[in-house]
Amino acid sequence: MFTPAFRAAALFVAVAVLNGCLSSGGDSPTLTESGGGTTVTPAESTGRTFLIKPGPNATDDMTKAMVQLKPKDTLKFDCGFFDLKTGIQITATEDVVIEGCGINDTVLSFRDSNTQEGFLASNVMGVTIRDLTIADSPGDAYKMKGVNHGNLLRVRAIWSSGRKTPQEVPITAANFKTAVQVKCTDPARHNPNNPNPLERDNTSPDYTVSTASGRYGIYPVQSRNILVDGAESIGASDAGIYVGQTNIAKIRNSRAAFNVFGFEIENVQDGEYLQNVAECNSGGFLVYDLDNLTQYGSRSRVHKNIARNNNTYNFAVPGSIVANVPRGSGLITLAYDKIDIYDNVFENNGTAGVILTSYDMLGDPGDRRMDVYSEAVNIFNNTFTNNGNDLPQPDFATIIATQGAQISSAFPMVVGLKNAAGGKGYKGGHIVWDGYQDTLNQNCALPLDKNGKPVAVDADGKPIQGNTNPNPACRYNAYKFKPNGERKVPAWWFSCINPSNKFNADSIAFANFHGTRGLDALVNLNTNDPSKNLSVEYVSAIASGIPLFASEFDLSKHNCAARFGADLPKLPDFEFEPFVPSGQYAPEPAAEAVKALCEVPLKAGVVNEAAYQVNCNELSQYNLFSKADDPTSKPNGQGMPYTLNSKLFTDYAVKHRVMYIPEGKSARFLQDESRRVTSTIEFPVGTIIAKTFTFVDQTAKTETPYETRLLIKRERKDGQKYWEGLEYIWQDGGDGKRKAVLTQSGGTGSAKWDYVDTDSGVRHTGQTNAYLFPNATQCAICHANNDKEPGSSPIGPKPRNLNRAYLNESPMPTGQASHPVTGKNQLKFMCDTGLMTNCPDSFNLDDKQVAKNVPHLPKFNVPGDSGQPANSKADIEARARAWIEVNCAHCHNENGQASNTGFYVDAFRAVDSTYGICKKPTASGSEGRGNRLYDIHPGQANDSIVPYRIGPEAVQLAAKMPPLGRSVVQDEAVTLITQWINTVIDSSYKNADACQENNQSGGGLPLVGGLPLLPK
Fold first, then answer.
1. Distance (Å, whole) CA 915 – CA 707
2. Residue range 237-253, pLDDT digits in tens
3. What is the pLDDT of residues 349-389, one digit of tens each?
4. Least C-beta-crowded within 10 Å: which of 121, 247, 262, 769?
5. 40 and 33 in contact (C-beta within 8 Å)?
6. Distance between CA 917 and CA 930 in Å, rounded?
7. Half-sphere exposure at residue 276, Cβ-oriented, CA atoms within 13 angstroms
């Protein structure tokens, strides 16, 4: 019998702020030279333009400009080729423009960038990027995450032909004008790594694809009101132009070529493809739902597009989701309802023009919140020519690389055999359908939300679901059926294929190939000669004896008007919601105002609290430390040093954290942390949190401050409270002392360390030449969450992470080590001294000064700190989860930067599918997977992505996690996470049965070593 593993993997078809203000005067623009390139400063009403020119200073000029973008500002790149060392990143702003002087004339190369994306907009309302090309980004070219009203106009994403292969033709300043022009005449149909001597068509005169190319070309995700117009993507190793988990998205007048998938709409509500061209991809268009994500999709229109010659071999990394796509697919639908497909041209696609399929082909994904069938697919007035006449053979290279786990490249062969058995010959067709249908699940009630109440339903009665709700025990589908169990038609029929379609007689018009049904019987009929089972002649001869093996070609069952008396109604057009500026972004303060608050006489021991309103040029102007040149000295004012139980890893830097709560004010303790998993204690306006990063050499008795980062809580005139993140880098002050200077553009440096950790007693030694000083936008990307106060809000000082006795992290003598909080529970000290209110009535402290009545995150590197027996399974899990929360959960939560992944790791969450148990990655790309199948594979760390991405094998930028702040590996963390997966997580964990154990394909289909070479 064919096991679920075969069906699950085998036939996946569907598948800085500059300190001085740039003031404006009058109505005429003025030109000035600044650290951000040439700055065009027009009237206040139209914003500022920062003009960046090609050359060695372009990266620095760009970074300085991008971190100070305010509403109506423009970051403009001049004509030419730019070699940029970091990506364009904007966050927590609105109504800004990034532009070049033409898609063919401005090329931004990120070949040597230290960030994954070429362009990233995060939590932005109103952003337009236009008239430029991004080349060779390590990861995605253009990414929008949490953007409302995002426009990508006349832009291109491209990777060099043959990227990172011996055949590479790099895009350079000398050739960019011609290198970005890629035609589609003759794609490479066969994987050059395939051990098949008959597959010789493995090169293309137009372009050489590469698994090492970035993941997505254009990638708006979890966004709203997205327009992609006049765009192009060339060479993405996943999808060229992709929109995911987004509401209201239009992709039009665009082209995708030589990507694995050309265009992809995933879990989108109200999407549209209009007048696009998909050519020379592995697959042209995909409209589908993926499991375990924040929302599921419905209502997309695909019209007036061309899908032609999508016959490039699938070059995605073996084992990834997109690697399942059979080459030669014009359009695929999977588990997505209400799609209008009309006025399109599907021609010269080797497997099929349109493929209609369900998760019954793949095996149940285990997410019972999601409907697994595509229904209400309305196909009319399309033109089909020469589709299905070049079926690819199975990709042996992928089958071998995944040890037989991914044999979905056999899908076209199965379709061909079944069509041949039905008498139509070994070929695909214009339209093929897997034929799977569900029946009424009479005993399944409406699912419940996370509060135990029935979930909301849409106008059709379909549950409105997402991964924030519990996974129910059954898949509810009563909304599709009448009370007597009959299906509501045509509303919930699978597809209506109208006679208005024009099917060229060169191909099979329609085939219901019945999925994998009958394949097990075929194998059982002839076990002595397995290869004979896949012979066209043999299969055709015996097909009549196997129920549901041979395809059916009756298109009349999909003529809805004739069969049901009505066609599906055409989906209505939809419009973008109007853009309404928030009005919350005030202009930068004038230089005179900054000077008046920062350049003032300072009093010994007194913090310059008034200066919290502005960004002072030097750290010393806030007067935070008793010694201005020593950020490890005793804090001034009410400054209280604090430490965390488990800390974010940053290249073995020692960290000195101090919170400064203004005189006369208090922080507020927040109880019931499990309901606010990202919340810290609540700080008053005027709070300054300082975190200094030092490198210690105990043998030399030195400790060198590298940077001090400030988080300052401010309030706008409209009452909106927000956090500003400032980066101060320590340097020679010129008088024998050191000073920290505001450097919002960030940078890199070298560092070395040799010290004994004060918590674990372990000695750490090492060095790096790539220590990262983050720019202001990079700080905000990690510190900004949708459910927290705007801006760079704090991450670390949560009650559960502060619940410990204070011990200075440095093994060297410091002024902060003599603070009265030393040795005392930090939360209780704050309550006892009035620094915090709303405190528990009492603190039940144990002998380690840990409050028993407050949640406690253990020190990950101290066995037994969880309160469980040291190195017991419970202790290992608690400590592993502590490290993961501190290092990952600020992004991997329901409202964080990585919320689109569906992988959430806060300390209060059950370890189940959303925590990664047997969960396949959604957007990891080739480097991010390391040829591993699951985020966490119980008992198999060597097949788990989490330890790979934090470990030594993840050498590519797009593979490393956390993505910022580490250039070396934290060995003790990798050891702990590996130990947890191998010795603690087992089959008893929820969703553990969703893994394909031992990477076996199952089913007994003799693909490896026994598959005959089928006829063309």
1. 34
2. 999 999 999 999 999 99
3. 999 999 999 998 877 788 899 999 999 999 999 999 999 99
4. 769
5. no
6. 17
7. 32
